[in-house]
Amino acid sequence: MKRLVILVLLGAASPLMAEQRSLAEAPPPRISTLVVYGDDPCPRSRDDEIVVCARQPESDRYRIPKELRGKHKKGDIPTQSWVERARTLDMVSRKGLPNSCSPHGSGGQTGCLRQFLEAARLEREAAKDGE
Question: Using an 8 Å Cβ cutoff, are 43 and 51 in contact?
Fold first, then answer.
């Protein structure tokens, strides 16, 4: 019975002892990793901080990082300009809004008439150019 009591007391005391040891140790220093370009100086470190600098050529200062540059693999969607992406997103998000030609929403019917009239105008202009 005494052994059981001693084991329980030791089991309860060991986390407290470990916590006291961790509080006595100093926290690890802060480490800052920076990228510097060309002849820019690496900032000096303070007592509680370690500064690590990676040096890149001056020509890479305003470039998109290599990891983010648009290299598409075979079968991927081809690169599209931001203007085209914005137009596509605008067209998709218009569903249900006025002039959207959608059965949903309050103003969808006006967009169907507008699209019909635009298609007719383009056909007339194509017929004029063909004459």
Answer: yes
Indicate the residue type of 122. Answer: L
Q: What is the pLDDT of residues 73-109, one digit of tens each?
A: 655 666 778 888 887 777 777 666 666 776 666 666 6
Domain membership of residue 99 (yes or no) is yes
Position 12 pLDDT exceeds 80: no
| Type of residue at 21 | R
CA angle 42, 48, 24 (to 5 degrees): 160
Alpha-carbon distance of 102 to 96, in angstroms, equals 6
Total domains in the fold of the chain: 2
What's the CA gap between 125 and 23, in Å, rounded?
82
Q: Output the pLDDT for position 45.
A: 86
The token pair that represents 5 in the structure block: 């009591």
121 to 31, 95, 129: CA distances (angstroms)? 65, 23, 12
Answer yes or no: is pLDDT of 39 > 80.
yes
Residue 77 lies in a domain: no
What's 104's DSSP letter? Answer: S
Beta bridge partners of residue 30, listed in sequence order = 49
